[in-house]
Amino acid sequence: MEIRIGIQHSPREIVVESTEEADAVLERLSAAVSDGAPVTLTDDKGRTVLIPGAKVAYAEVSTEEPRRVGFLG
């Protein structure tokens, strides 16, 4: 699943590919925003991202797999 998070006063968004459940991620993000606490997300390659909950502008969770472009051979 793809998670896109916008940070206040930042022109770029954070994009994380994760294998976590969408409901669990949204619940953790909601708690972080309401408490103003940071939230940690781990992507599918094992990298960890720390996001300041007080600065989250929006979060978009896509459970659909994006189409891959290319040739198999």
What would the keywords be for this entry?
1 helix; 73 residues; globular; two-stranded antiparallel ribbon; 5 strands
Give the helices and strands, then pairings:
Blueprint lengths: L1 E6 L5 E5 L4 H14 L3 E4 L5 E4 L4 E7 L11
Antiparallel strand pairs: 1-2, 1-5, 3-4
Brief summary:
By secondary structure, the chain is an alpha+beta fold. 19% of the residues lie in helices and 36% in strands.
Write up what this structure looks like.
This protein is of the alpha+beta class and 73 residues long. It is 19% helix and 36% strand. The chain has one helix at residues 22-35; strands at 2-7, 13-17, 39-42, 48-51, 56-62. The strands form 2 sheets. The protein has a 3-stranded antiparallel sheet with strand order 2-1-5, with helices on one face. Strands 3-4 form a two-stranded antiparallel sheet. The two termini are 26 Å apart.
